[in-house]
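Think of the structure tokens as a kind of shorthand, similar to the way a musician reads notation: each symbol stands for something richer, in this case the local conformation of the backbone. In the example below we present two proteins back to back. Begin with the first one, reading the sequence and then the tokens, and try to describe in your own words what changes along the chain.
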Amino acid sequence: MTQHIKAVFFDLDGTLRIPSPGPTAAFIHFARSLDIEIPPAAEHRVKVWAHEYWGHETLVKQDMEQYDIDGFWINYSKQLLEKVDARQDLTTRAALVRQWFDTEYKPQVACAPGAKQLLATLKQAGYIVGLISNRPNPLHDDVTQLGLNEFFDLMLAAGEIGYWKPDPKIFWHVISRFNGLRAEECLYVGDNYFADGRGAAAAGMIPVLYDPEDLYGESVYPVYRRIRHMTDVLQILSENGLRSAIGNRLFS
């Protein structure tokens, strides 16, 4: 059987590189310390909204141009508070959120569970493996700290070329680096429905949404394949015809 998928590309932050707590979860924790009531529905809403905001590259650029760095993060904090219906003393509370993140937020960072196993298996099976991130600066140092450097044929930060997810140009740029590779032969695995899912789909790739918190229920976001664990990517590849020697051992 012909192997259909030839390349698997990944997002970095929130996908392979997991901060604990994540920034939106940390915001929720701190907001509750201010006696702001955040029920589960509001918690879910603000986490999805944060993905949507960072997946709207034009809006983010506009805000960055409008504000200095401190003003940008205070404005972002205001929007987080609004999404959990905490509108009282909004400016004061937003300044407290900004200060807390600036001085107290020090998350532990680790690989997503199963990520190293997945990447090693993909490389052994002969896939092209790469990273496409919306970071402004090169990825090498953080990837090396995670112990993942050996697995990637290419690592690209959006700031290196000036195209940002969900703009399909960033995905096309990566595809063009591999002679003869076509978009439909690529999986793209990311955690952000709006940047990763929509961007990869617009580029013609096959999007896979890493969604361990089940933020994107099928009834609301039915378009893309979702996974809860990194090694679930192997099952998707098996369905697309992976039958290398390694693949036969994995899926028989």
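Once you have a description of the first chain, move to the second and do the same.
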Amino acid sequence: MKKKIAALLSAVTLIFSAFPLSAYADNADIDSVEAAVTETPSASANNPLELTAKAAVLMNGETGQIVYALNSQQQLPEASITKIMTMLLVFEAYDAGKLSMDETVTCSEYAASMGGSQIWLEPGEEMSVHDLIKAALVGSANDACVALAEHIAGSNEAFVSMMNDRAEELGMINTFYVNCTGLDAEGHVTSAQDIAIASAELLKHSEVLEFTGIWMDTLRGGELQLTNTNKLIKQYSGTIGLKTGTTSKAGCCISAAARRDDMTMIAVILGAPDGKSRFADAKKLLDYGFANWELADVSQIQVELPEIPVTNGMEKKVGSFVQIEGKVLTEKGKSKDIQVKTELPETLEAPVELGQPIGKVRLTLGSETIGEYDICADRGSEKITLGSAIMELLKGIIGS
């Protein structure tokens, strides 16, 4: 009976996907379609794009550089964007060989009891890791997330603890997780900047794009239809993910990632007043990013480096090298203005080890540092001792 109801609701979902509501409650109670309306921020120097959201961030996915921020550090509820961290741990377990896509997960009583968006798993029902990930990322299924969490960590509580540990490792200083779904809970908070950090980390796992780019799909052999809650997949060119979220406390939220000309931009929106505004705000951010910024390849930059005198060393001088690689984010048309600044000491004190960092090369654009690379010693120099000094003296005498 539960699966029949699920199939019926799935068909209703398809109908509504053709005629979308202004706010899709992908993680709210089923009857709670409209998110709580928030006051629209007025245009100001801090919000030149006139976003409607409470908080927002635009980050370059390759460099982690933030190019637009609105209340980016404010702690707010995040709804189903929580699942970005949930999926990060899932894909890290997969890449570590602790999880395979075709292994089977058995749904617990607790996982089956989740409210909000779900695929109506039944206690004892078995489903592959692959299909549970698809349910979580396409359909925002809370029961699928908890089933995966319990499978990986042994319990939901242990998995949430892993989420908080990982957030701390990533420097997500404004984030605390109470659950792995994003259902409203006291103390379950994050910030727009923290979400961007987690999103960029998840995008390092290329397999996730096989799921976040799906518009419509099915589960249970076609019995259950899924429609992606991220409408930008259809509405915005280059969209590759990632996740929406809506609850009464969080409002309408999204972490939207798009890629054009080998550059990824991540737009995070928290607390938009409705679904339409959420997507409109994300588009504004992404448009701003692609219109005004580009990646410059710096791997061809050559730097001439001198030998550095070594005090009290067996080697009186050591050479140096630097490896400049990758890309840096610049405003469009400004890459030609990149300046190279070398920072090296006049002398080094022995001992010096091969490969030891001894200075910096900084790439600057105006007053801003846009890249930093270690200058390293190309050989070592041991500290001179009485014994080594006598040996060197004897070598000199014998040699003469």
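Compare your description with these statements about the second chain. The chain is about 30% helix and 25% strand.
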